[in-house]
Specification:
Length: about 325
Amino acid sequence: MADINSSSSLSTIFYLTGIPGYEALYHWISIPFFILYMIGIMGNCTILHIVRTDPSLHEPMYYFLAMLSLTDMGMSLPTLVSVFRVLWSISNEIEFNTCVIQMFFIHTFSLTESAVLLAMAFDRYVAICHPLRYSTILTPKRIIKIGITAFLRSSLTSTPPLVSLAYFPYCHSHVLSHSYCLHQDMIRLACADTKFNVIYGVVVIIILLWGFDALGILISYIFILRSVLSIASQKERLKALNTCASHICAVLILYVPMIGLSVVHRFAKHTSPLVHIFMAHIYLLVPPILNPIIYSVKTKQIRVGIIRLLLPKKIHSTWG
């Protein structure tokens, strides 16, 4: 029987969950969700357009910012259809193979974003600690290689546990906890030994990848702080640290919800379903929404680019 279930797992139908107890309000709840998705999409597309069209922003810092916008959208956009299919009461069904593809994009781009944040920390380290060598260390070709390596590392790492899901029988409930698919949510439905997935997730994903990225970011900022504290002028110190403020916010925006969601799934399984749903949507929507806002507010060049995009030439010329 297990073999039959395992062999047919690719055609198994699973059921997504919206917000239990609030089904009658789904159409109203979909309005703020739609607004949040649109803010994230428009904000990140604006950043990408400004970086692409403004020659003065063709620098390493802004290339990495464009990568951050791409990873933000890559993480959230694959969930858009399934979320609104549930909230608009169209269907809460999702096929196994569709679920796996969705998980691949969510987890791959989540890990890629972590790697991009590490690259951005290195960018700030070079800019502050080795400013004269900045353009020779972070060349356009090297930046492209960093982006490709980050994506390949993440996609290859996230693939094994997702492939293994196809060999599990799902004889328990097929109801998922969220309106989109997550690996840690799927494995709890398998009636098989999932030790490989659990150990792989903890050792490879959390410790080796997230841990390596977080350690690299921490080390970069230790060197940055040491360099900044050696600057005699307090004004110059604040100016140097201000260039790092947006990046620090982006790190917290990604890591805090990511860690919170992992903790909830692993150690708070019996808490209210609303807690799981709340954390899952924070993890999904907060980075794509807040990152463009933070970089627009804190980065003058991006702010000026937005003004140029929105206002006529005669008006924006006074803002230059």
